[in-house]
Amino acid sequence: MDDARHVKSVERALDILMAFNARNPRLQLQELAESAGIPKSSARRLALTLISAGFLEQSADGTYCLGGRLLELGGVVANAGALSELTARTMREIHEASGESVLVADVNWIDRSILITHKRDAVHLLSISSPVGKRTALGTGCITKAALAALPAAEAERVVAHMAFARKTPRSVASASELLGQLEVIRAQGWASEEGEFIDGVSGVAVAVVENERPIGAVAVIAPSSRAPRSSLETWGALMSASLGRGVT
Question: Where does the HTH iclR-type domain lie (predicted)?
Answer without folding.
Answer: 7-68
